[in-house]
Amino acid sequence: MSDVRDIVLRNVTKIFGPTPVRALEQLRAGATKEALLAQTGHTVGVRDVSFSIEAGSCFVVMGLSGSGKSTLLRHLNRLIEPTAGEILFEDEDILRLPPEALRRFRRDRTSMVFQRFALFPHKTVLENAAYGLNLQARGGAERRANLQKAQRWIERVGLAGYEAQYPNQLSGGMQQRVGLARALATEAEVMLMDEAFSALDPLIRREMQDALMRLQAELRWAGRWRVALRGDATGIPGTYEAGRWQTVRSFEVHGAGAYDALRIPGGGRENPGNPGRNGRPRAHRRLWNSPATRHE
């Protein structure tokens, strides 16, 4: 039984299409995702996924492109509604939240770093970074204070001097850092990171990963959750300390374990951060070639 401070997913399934409930019956009757697509035009996004995330932990979902990672992540704040299943946050099913309560949950308790940045093109860097804070603001004085707080986070992610610029004046990596500043500024209980460092150059990525580790101590993340998506295992133990991982293959959850297990997915002791021949991380090869996680 899970602790009441856990985030728990139980048998979550998402089917895209005009009649998902009917398609769900076929899926439960044994239809494959390929057959369902061919016969009904419905797409299986996530299939019968269950796991729990303990309070104070960082939980990493790994999978190849198209495996359903982003779809799964967006269920945790109901940007995507499941076709079936339960999503419990501190023993409360968030799928039962009415619209106003759901808005409060998203605004006050969660933040998100989007893979495609999701910045407002008509707002400056500073205004974008302060956006989540200003959703919580109750007056002009608080909004002005929020701009000062957002300014500090802009500096933390290395964008001092760009406060008055607009997203289309920034590189992709710089836009991603604005998204990271926006998510960190609210100091939310739940931080969802969809490939949060994917658009960054290797050097900047390393700097942001190190900054995230420092923030983990500064913000006392003991009672909070972080959920991150990764396409591979490279850098995970050094970035997402003291957490667990889950692999996604063909829209279903497969292997799971602690980060230490990532170092020995095939029984060896290789570190995901240590490159093998041709510069490719050894654990990356091991992870995706191990029987439990092979992508089909």
Descriptive account of the structure:
The chain is an alpha/beta fold and 296 residues long. It has one domain: Rossmann fold (3-Layer(aba) Sandwich). It has helices spanning 20-28, 33-40, 69-73, 99-109, 125-129, 131-136, 140-156, 172-185, 202-218, 236-239, 259-262, 282-289; strands at 7-16, 43-53, 58-63, 84-89, 92-93, 110-113, 190-194, 225-230, 243-249, 252-258. The chain has a six-stranded mixed beta sheet. Strands 2-1-4-5 form a four-stranded antiparallel beta sheet. A hairpin with a 2-residue loop joins strand 9 and strand 10 (252-258). Residues 233-243 and 257-296 have low confidence and may be disordered.
Strand content: 15-25%
Low-confidence stretches: 233-243, 257-296
Structural class comes to alpha/beta
Helical segment tally? Answer: 12
The 3D shape can be described as globular
In N-to-C order, the SSE pattern is EHHEEHEEHEHHHHEHEHEEHH
What order do the strands of the largest sheet run in, or round the barrel if closed?
6-7-8-3-9-10
Described by strand count, sense and barrel closure, the largest sheet is:
6 strands, mixed
Oligomer: single chain
Terminal-residue CA separation: 32 Å
CATH class: Alpha Beta
Number of domains: 1
Average pLDDT, all residues: 75
CATH homologous superfamily label: P-loop containing nucleotide triphosphate hydrolases
What's the CATH architecture? 3-Layer(aba) Sandwich
Tell me the number of strands: 10
As a percent range, the share of helical residues equals 25-40%
What is the CATH T-level topology? Rossmann fold
